From TrEMBL:
Family, similarity comment: Belongs to the universal ribosomal protein uL29 family.
NCBIfam families reported in the protein's UniProt record: L29 (TIGR00012)
Keyword Ribonucleoprotein: yes
InterPro entries assigned to the protein according to its UniProt record, in alphabetical order: Ribosomal_uL29, Ribosomal_uL29_CS, Ribosomal_uL29_sf
Protein name in the entry: Large ribosomal subunit protein uL29
Source organism (scientific name): Candidatus Chaera renei
Molecular-function annotations in GO: structural constituent of ribosome
Length: 77
């Protein structure tokens, strides 16, 4: 399986969207192959799902750190 040449953080949003659609198509093909009994390495599905997650994270940006509006109460047990 070929990996993306550049890290997701180095790609612009258009390239990320293209890579994401390509990986989703690849995932669909691997799932079809698995059901047909043609897929040699089922772990490749897991790898593609992780690559999709990396692309989505880069596309959506890092989540901001949530700071509570009120300080949390400390409770004793």
């Amino acid at each position: 399986m070929a990996k993306t040449t550049a890290k997701p953080a180095q790609l612009n949003p258009k390239q990320l969207a293209e890579a994401l659609s390509q990986k989703r198509a690849d995932l669909a093909e691997k799932k079809r192959s698995l059901k047909a009994g043609e897929l040699v390495n089922p772990r490749s599905i897991r790898a593609v799902r992780r690559e999709i997650a990396r692309l989505l994270t880069a596309l959506n940006g890092p989540a901001p750190a949530e700071s509570p509006s009120k300080p949390l109460k400390k409770t004793r047990k």
